[in-house]
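## retry 2 of 3
previous attempt timed out at serialization; input unchanged, resubmitting
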Amino acid sequence: MGVITINETVNKIREFNRFYMSAMDLLGNHYLGSEYSVTEARIFFEIYTNSGCNAAYIAKRMNIDKSYLSRILKNHEKNGYLFKKISEKDSRVYELYLTEKGKNKTEDFVQKSEQQIGELIQQLSQNDCELLKDAFDTIIAILNKCKGEKK
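## retry succeeded, writing output
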């Protein structure tokens, strides 16, 4: 195996991103056939898995602009998917919670996403599934080192 340059690695990551975004049908504005973009849908998931988190947490976790996030949160609240509650620890901060409607929407996204991925990999052998899982574990571990995070 020869020496791999940073540019070759960057190009391979970009190639994978292009493949994955297309394979998962994430390039349009309608995530899993919904009226939401990938970013808007992902916000549901962040609140679902981190109930009571705040907007600053989501902005940092997703690396998105706070004003863009604010508009999305207002829209989700207006549509009855989430509600805000003033934090007991800091009255300047709002904690975010999904309503039942928001939880149902998130669970529907999760179910559809799992189904879509399952359909993509259903023809893989058990060995290929293990290799794929291990490859993703490796990718996550290596990229987390770049960010200074732990798995």
